[in-house]
Queue: 3 jobs
Job 1
Amino acid sequence: MTRITLLTRCAWTNLLEAELGSDSINCSYAKLHRDRREWLCCRATNDPATVRATKVSNDLDLLLSGKSATQMRISTTGNSLAPVGVTVVVVAHNEESRISDCIGSLAQQIAKGVKVELILIDDGSTDRTVELAYAAAPGLTVISNPSQSISSNRNCGLRAASHPYVAFIDADCAAPTHWLATLARGMCELSSLDGEPVAAVGGANVPPAGETPFYDALALMLNTRLGSRGSVQGMVFDQARQVAHLPGLNVLYNKEALEKVGGWDERFALIGEDEDLSRRLALAGFSLFFVPEAVVVHRQRSNFRAWAKNMFTYGKGRMWLIRHHPTAFESGLLIPPLLPLLLWAYLPVIAVISLGLAWRSNRLDLWPRLALLYATTHVSYGLGQWAGLFSVQDGVQRNSA
């Protein structure tokens, strides 16, 4: 079986686009050492039959060794990589303004050797969501499940999936043409490594670049530890890595692993459902991996008011998650609830941090928005934590878009 471990984002793209040819050089697979998080890859020498191992971190030149991407060939031993079957599930409720971009991007996926099934779970839409989805992908399967619960809808998609792997992407996201191929290959190759069985691979999500100053500031803020707590939910890492959690808006699961843990817990209707699943998969002995090249564009909340409401909801969901998973508590979570009492000290510090980020990014025009975004995120999240601490979890509460 062909075995290529994910390398840097750029390297993985080259490998996906590499053409097979008899005159191309051999490159053996790179292997991730789980205990050291190191990469071993091979650099081709002048003699195609000779390959020597080289320890590499980010140096793409060591991988390519002066050869162009089209000169690279994935060396094979034994059987070639078997075709992979993937079901892609999208959950939508009144998404007529964004569903065409999402479904259209999925219909344009380039995934040679991957059998694709596309399913839309419609959560009682009253607009043209279903009509526009059909127009974007006539072969689409639509299932109606008016449950007002993302967990129920994802379980519905899981039950309907006919392939051994199930990918999920949100209706307000759009995927590049290589997205599914990247996830599918990542799943196959990482699953071939020794260690815990792989339950899922997933990637980052980023706001549309250059569309609005708000989205540009949001992208900068989220890609910092202060903005997203170092989570895959917000940060874009440049190397593959094992992670504790993968957000459900950009992920490929092993269907058997999901079925083993019972799918999504429907007590988490719309808040914390994906992290609850990640934690139960880990407890069942599975691992999760971040794949750097699998990035989707996410049209998330587009103004300060909507963003504040979303962060309030996330803070509330965090407290509900901790009730079920006490290990989800982190000492840093003690800070946001106290910020309303410490604004006199917090605001000057966050203003200076925002200025530094804007300066390093050569976007001084975003300084005020960055400072306001940090403050909105932290204070709203903290207020949500207070609400979650003293409220009963609602299994059917809808998180408004």
Note: The mean pLDDT is 78.
Job 2
Amino acid sequence: MADELLLTVGECARRLGFGKSLVYRFIRRGELRSLRIGGARRVLVAELDEFVTRLRERRDEEAVVV
């Protein structure tokens, strides 16, 4: 749904093409911010978008280093 504000870890993993364990690792490291709502872990769509932007920037910086 296009108007979603929060995603589950599984939904984030599918959107990123990663496994859930890797998404949890990014969360533990503080690279991907998340919310705990009751017993559920959720990620804001805007935060996922920012995370992807940071990954792209990091990739671009690494590609420039010779």
Note: The helical segments are 9-16, 20-29, 45-64.
Job 3
Amino acid sequence: MRVSFAPQALEDLVATIEYIARDNPVAAASLGDRVFEMVDRLAEGGLDASMGRSMFSARESGYGVGRSHH
């Protein structure tokens, strides 16, 4: 399957990664890597919806509400 980003979606992703990188470059790089890994897996047909939710869970990543990363 071919997967592509809508132009606005890619702009939003880049802006989000840049925003996170101001305070935490490692987390920003990790997020970018994870997004593109998931897109690759989707294109290969090896991704189901439950796996996507699990990979991006705020609780698992440590970026839940009320937690500060300064």
Note: The longest helix spans residues 25-43.
